[in-house]
C-alpha cells in the first residue's frame, strides 16, 4: 500500500488523473496543519489539499491507524465514505463535493476542494449567519433519506444498502460514546464543582438514561434510509448561498430524522452560547439568537415539506395514497428529533472532549450559564418531545426554559 | 442436482448417513399425500417421512419450483431454514426438531420426525386442548428472540445474523400478501353479499389501513432478533406435554413480539370459531373457550416473564440495570402484539385462501358469525392496543366485543 505524503502526492495524482496539470505552480497542504477554523476538526484521516491555478482538489486517505489518536481503525471506512458520497451526490449534487476518482487498493479518493466555503461551526461561533442553511440542510436530509428508503428503492436495493453500509466498527463509536459515555464517568469539572454535581445528578437520573437507551435502540436497529450519522456543524461547509456536506464515513441505514435531530442539537448549543457569550451589542445578540431559532424552524419545516414532496412525487406504487403512513413517519420524526438533539448536546456539554461552541466563551460564569442552559433544555425537550406537533412546539420549549433560567440567575 | 423421490431416497440416505439401517422394513411416505390433519399445510417443499423400526426421519428438499403452486421460489430457503433451526435448537432444544444432516448442494436437510406429535391447528379444530401450549410457545419465542438480539450477542454477531437472514424473497410474500392483500381485492364472497360488504367497508377504511402500514414498516425495517415469521398453529406440533416448532424458512431478524402477535391471532380465530361451532355440550364449549383465553394469557405472560428472566440473567454488561429500557421494549411488544394478531386474522378472514379454523364450521350462519366476530375483534384490538398494559386488557376487549356482538344477533 502506498502512503501518500506531500512528496509523492503529485506523481501519484499524475499517475491516476491523466488530466492533472502540474506545469504551473502547485500548492500542497495537509489538513490539520492549518487552524481548526480552516480545516474543521477531522482527526482520523490523512487529507491533503492540492491547489493549481486550474483546480483545487482534496485527497483523502484512510489508513489503519487514526491520524491523531494513533488507534487502529477499519480502512473500509474510506470505501464506504466514497460510496455514500456517490449516492448522496446522485441525489443532491448541489450539496455534495464532486468525486474525481477512487483508489480502492490504497483506501484513497480524490474530490473537489470546497474550501471556498467555510466550516459552519466556526462561523457561527463568530456570529456569522448563513441565511439558507436550514433550508439547504433540510432538503439534503429529506431527499437523501427518502431516496435511499424502501419507499423509493426496490426491496432488493434497500436491503443491499443495509448490507453494504453495515459499518459496525464506526457505528460502534457513536453507539457507545455518543449515547452512553455521558453517564457519570467523564463530566467536565472545569466549570466548578457545583456545575459538575448538577450535571452528574442529571446524568444519573434513570428516566433520562432510559430515553437515551430507547433512542439508541432505534439508532442501532431501525433501518429507514442512508443517514450521514455525524452531521454536525463542522461537517457542513457553507457560504451565503452554497452548502456542502462532508465527512461521510459514519454513513449507514438508520432511522429517519437522526441527522435532523443531531444538527438541531448543534444549533441549540449555539443558541445557548449566544445567550451568554459577548456580542458587539445587545441588538446583534438578539438578531443572532433569532437567526438560530429561525434556522432550527426552517431546517425542520423544510425536512417535513421536502419529504412530503418526495413522497407525493416519487413514492412506490404500493404506498401511493397512504397519507396516514406518511403522517405517522413524520410524527415519529417530530418526536425523535428533540431526543437526538438532546442526546448530542448532553454528550458534548458534559464530556471532556473540547466543544468549541462553548469553549469560545471566555468568561467562566458565562460559559457555565450557557452549559447549564443547554442541559436544562436537553432535559426539557427530551421529555416534552412526545407532545410536539411541529418545530414551533420545540422552539417554544427552548424559549420558555431560557426565560425560566434567566429568572433564576 | 439430485431430485429426491421415493425410489432414490433410501440409497441417498445410506450414502449420507453411515448409521442409517435399512435391513429392517422401511416405510416411506410423502407429506401432502396424507390428510392435512396428519401433514399440516406445507405446500412449497418436498418432504418425505422415512420410518424404520429404529428411527423416524424427515427429509426436506427445497426445489426451484414450489411443489403445489409450481411457481419459482428461491432455493436458498432450504439453507436458511436449516440454519435458523440450528440456532433455535441451540437455544431451546426442547422445542425444535433435532437436525441429522444437511446437503447444501442439493438443498436438502434431514431431521428428526416429530409426527408422534399432532399439528395443533387441527386438534384445536376438534376442541383438543394442550394445557402447556401457551407456556411452551411463550418460552420458545422469548428465549430465541432475546438470545439472537444485540442485548445478548455482540454487535458483530447480531449484524451478521441480519445479513445472513436477509431473506428478501420469502419475506416479500408476507410483506405484501399478509399485510396488504386484504385490501379490497379478494374478499371471500361465499358468506353472502352482506358479509362481503361489511368486510369490504372495513378493509377500505383508511384508519385500519394506516395501522397495517405502520406495523408493516416495523416488520420490514426493525431488526430486534431472529423471528420465525410464520408461527401459526399448523407450524406447531404438540402433545399433552411436548411441543415442537417446525417450518422455519421465513426466519429473519425482525421485531420483538411479531411471532407472539401472529400466534395470538390464530388463538383469537379459534376463540371466534368456538363461540359458534358445534360442541357436544354448552359446558364443553365454555370449557374450551376458557382454555383458549387462558392460553392467550399464558402465552403473553410467559413471553414477558421469560424475556425479563433472560434479561436479568444474561443481558450484556452495557444493559445491566437498565430496567427502563426493558420496560419500554416490553411495553412496545404489548402494543404491537394485538396489532399483528389483528393483521393476520383480518387477512385470513377476508382472503380467499382456505382457513380451516373457520372452514370446519358447517353451518353457514355460524361460520359468518364467527368470521364477523373475528373482524370486529380485529378492529377493536387494532385501535385499543395503545392502552393495553397486559394480556388482561386484551382479553377484556375480546370478551367485551363478543358480548356486544351477541346482543346484536
From N to C, what is the helix and strand string of chain A?
Answer: HEHEEHEEEHHHHHHEEEEHHHHHH
Strand content of chain A: 5-15%
How far is the N terminus from the C terminus of chain A? Answer: 59 Å
Secondary structure: helix percent of chain A = 40-55%
Strand order of the largest sheet of chain A: 1-2-3-5-4
As an assembly, this protein is homodimer
Overall pLDDT level of chain A: 93
Unreliable spans of chain A are none
Rg of chain A (C-alpha, Å): 21 Å
By helix and strand content of chain A, what is the structural category? alpha+beta
CATH class label of the largest domain in chain A:
Alpha Beta
CATH level 3 topology of the largest domain in chain A:
Aminoglycoside 3'-phosphotransferase, Chain: A, domain 2
Amino acid at each position: 500500500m502506498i502512503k501518500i505524503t506531500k512528496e509523492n502526492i503529485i506523481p501519484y495524482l499524475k499517475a491516476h488523473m491523466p488530466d492533472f496539470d502540474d506545469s504551473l505552480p502547485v500548492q500542497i497542504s495537509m489538513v490539520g496543519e492549518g487552524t481548526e477554523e480552516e480545516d474543521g476538526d477531522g482527526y482520523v484521516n490523512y487529507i491533503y489539499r492540492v491547489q493549481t491555478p486550474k483546480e483545487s482538489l482534496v485527497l483523502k486517505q484512510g489508513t489503519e491507524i487514526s491520524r491523531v489518536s494513533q488507534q487502529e481503525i477499519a480502512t473500509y471506512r474510506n470505501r464506504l465514505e466514497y460510496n455514500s458520497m456517490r449516492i448522496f451526490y446522485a441525489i443532491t449534487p448541489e450539496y455534495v463535493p464532486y468525486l474525481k476518482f477512487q483508489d480502492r487498493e490504497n483506501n484513497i479518493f480524490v474530490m473537489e476542494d470546497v474550501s471556498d466555503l467555510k466550516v459552519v461551526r466556526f462561523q457561527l461561533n463568530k456570529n456569522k449567519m448563513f441565511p439558507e442553511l436550514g433550508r439547504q440542510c433540510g432538503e439534503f436530509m429529506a431527499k437523501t433519506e427518502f431516496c435511499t428508503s424502501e419507499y423509493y428503492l426496490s426491496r432488493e436495493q434497500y436491503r443491499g444498502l443495509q448490507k453494504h453500509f453495515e459499518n459496525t466498527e464506526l457505528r460502534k463509536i457513536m453507539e457507545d460514546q455518543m449515547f452512553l459515555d455521558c453517564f457519570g464517568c467523564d463530566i467536565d469539572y472545569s466549570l466548578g464543582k457545583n456545575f459538575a454535581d448538577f450535571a452528574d445528578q442529571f446524568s444519573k437520573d434513570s428516566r433520562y438514561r432510559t430515553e437515551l437507551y430507547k433512542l439508541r435502540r432505534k439508532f442501532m436497529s431501525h433501518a429507514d434510509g442512508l443517514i450521514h450519522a455525524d452531521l454536525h456543524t463542522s461537517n457542513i461547509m457553507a457560504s451565503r448561498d452554497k452548502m456542502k456536506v462532508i465527512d461521510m464515513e459514519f454513513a449507514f441505514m438508520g432511522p429517519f430524522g437522526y441527522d435532523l435531530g443531531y444538527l438541531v442539537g448543534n444549533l441549540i448549543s449555539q443558541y445557548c452560547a449566544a445567550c451568554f457569550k459577548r456580542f458587539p451589542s445587545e441588538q446583534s445578540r438578539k438578531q443572532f439568537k433569532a437567526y438560530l431559532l429561525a434556522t432550527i424552524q426552517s431546517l425542520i419545516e423544510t425536512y417535513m415539506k421536502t419529504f412530503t414532496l418526495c413522497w407525493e412525487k416519487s413514492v412506490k406504487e404500493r404506498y401511493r395514497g397512504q397519507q396516514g403512513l406518511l403522517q405517522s413517519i413524520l410524527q415519529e420524526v417530530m418526536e425523535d428529533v428533540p431526543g437526538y438533539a438532546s442526546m448530542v448536546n448532553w454528550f458534548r456539554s458534559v464530556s471532556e472532549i473540547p466543544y468549541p461552541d462553548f469553549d469560545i466563551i471566555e468568561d467562566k460564569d458565562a460559559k457555565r450559564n450557557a452549559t447549564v442552559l443547554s442541559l436544562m433544555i436537553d432535559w426539557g425537550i427530551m421529555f416534552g418531545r412526545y407532545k410536539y406537533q411541529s418545530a414551533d412546539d420545540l422552539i417554544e420549549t427552548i424559549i420558555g426554559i431560557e426565560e425560566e433560567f434567566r429568572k433564576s440567575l
